[in-house]
TrEMBL record:
Alphabetical UniProt keywords: Membrane, Transmembrane, Transmembrane helix
Family named by the database record: Belongs to the glycosyltransferase 2 family. WaaE/KdtX subfamily.
Protein name: Glycosyltransferase family 2 protein
Coiled coil feature spans: none
Listed Pfam families: Glycos_transf_2
InterPro entries: Glyco_trans_2-like, Nucleotide-diphossugar_trans
Annotated ranges, domain Glycosyltransferase 2-like: 19-138
TM helices/strands, residue ranges: 227-248
Superkingdom: Bacteria
Length: 270
């Protein structure tokens, strides 16, 4: 084991990892996700009321599955997951993500380092059956936590981690996480509404104004940035479709802010 800030008996024992996954009707993705996470000491699935085979598949693969159908937002679901987490570290994995061997190796090394910190991840996108190898992703999200740092999550739509102390060290993991963002055009069209409304609800919380012109400007800028400046143009037809769908989500997000604002709430599920 590498040098650890932990003292006494804690420093001499093997540190453990919990991987936590929130689900709702993810039967097409959950098996690959869970198989990639099977090395963890504990795998916890918190389900929001799936009506497909999501929970059956998760149980068959050895995950600890807990169903909470009284949907009150992502923050509460994450807090419920944390209540079941027993590991020294907790890593949040989405059902449409998979852990590569290289990512697993880096993750296990971090866990055994014993560092009390937070780690962010970047994605490598997989869309329409093709890995978008040349698409440059700049998004960074906090996914790995020393368990003792996480007090709770707050926020109905845009959940935010509340920490037990200030001035926490943050790192960026070197290996990207595989994100199976869009498998087919059919499912992408189905999720277009979900993603657009989730983004609209988040911006409504923040007091952002919407409208058709703003939506057009945002969607055009998004497509140009992804397709040309982030090299989606080098990823063939799959890259083009990915950029189009992301741009459409941006357009309808701002249109919904203007036309559906009275109906926006936290009851929008990933």
């Amino acid at each position: 084991m590498t040098d650890s800030p932990l003292g006494g008996a804690a420093a001499s024992r093997r540190l453990t990892l919990t991987i936590g996954i929130l689900t709702l009707n993810e039967e097409d993705n959950i098996e690959a996700c869970l198989r990639s996470a099977s090395f963890a000491d504990q795998v916890v699935v918190v389900d929001s009321g799936s009506v497909d085979r999501t929970t059956a598949i998760a149980c068959s693969l050895g995950a600890q599955v807990f169903r909470y159908e009284d949907w009150q937002g992502f923050a509460l679901q994450r807090n419920r997951l944390l209540a079941h987490a027993k590991g020294d570290y907790v890593f949040f994995l989405d059902a449409d993500e998979t852990i590569s061997p290289a990512f697993r190796e880096e993750l296990e090394a971090i866990v055994q380092s014993g560092e009390e910190a937070i780690w962010m991840v970047r994605w490598r996108m997989v869309a329409f059956g093709k890995e978008l190898k040349y698409l440059r992703s700049t998004a960074k999200v906090e996914r790995l936590f020393w368990r003792g740092l996480l007090r709770e999550y707050t926020g109905v739509v845009h959940e935010e981690a509340q920490l037990s102390r200030a001035n926490v060290t943050r790192h960026l993991m070197r290996t990207p996480l595989l994100h199976h963002s869009r498998s087919t055009v059919h499912t992408s069209l189905e999720k277009l509404t979900q993603y657009a409304m989730l983004g609209a609800a988040k911006r409504a919380e923040e007091g952002v104004r919407g409208g058709i012109l703003r939506g057009l400007a945002s969607s055009i800028a998004m497509f140009v940035r992804l397709y040309f400046f982030h090299f989606g143009i080098l990823c063939g037809g799959a890259g083009f479709l990915y950029c189009v769908f992301v741009a459409l989500e941006s357009f309808f997000r701002y249109v919904a802010l203007a036309y559906d604002r009275p109906y926006l709430s936290g009851d929008v599920r990933r």
